[in-house]
Amino acid sequence: MSEDANVPLEKAVIDELGDEKLTEIAGLLDTDAAGAQNLITETVSALSGGLQEKATNGAPEEVDEVRQAFAEVGDAAGAAPLQGVATLGGGLGGLLSGGMMAGVIAKMSKPVATAVSKKTGIPAPTVSRAIEMLIPVLLAVLTKRAASSKAGASGGSPQASGPIPTPGPVPGAAPGATPTGQQGGQQGGGLDLGDILGNILGGGKK
Hints:
By secondary structure, the chain is an all-alpha fold.
């Protein structure tokens, strides 16, 4: 399941996407399902790596921006459980319409499209269009993982509504990523950004 942090983020996004959307992206790329999966894997990996880079090595304002973006994802997770891509117009409405996380990812989309284009040979404008299709799916996965991590942190009793006191879990951490709470300051609940990154991406949990 996409909310399981032990599942690689790239696979979680492909699973969340579903066959119909995967076929749609394959048509956009003029390739088959395997080719579409390859591009999605490269793209999600680059986006998550970019988030980790901002969180660990970014300027203080970038670290703060990432922290706030994931806090917003956590708030969305507490407010409205998601049931997949079909609900993107519901619980994720705020995130998709000017939400901080969508904005952070959008800022990275052009350099990511360029990098993925160089690796795959697919034109950057086409990759950019695919990224636009992937953003709501990635947000859905992050929100589910935020809810799952929040439930685990509270002993299996997630709050049904209201903002969470700490940033929601974060995508983008590589295994063994160094915690960055000392760099960006710790949030009230005691979870530092490095822990959140590890919990959300998958593979980074102790």
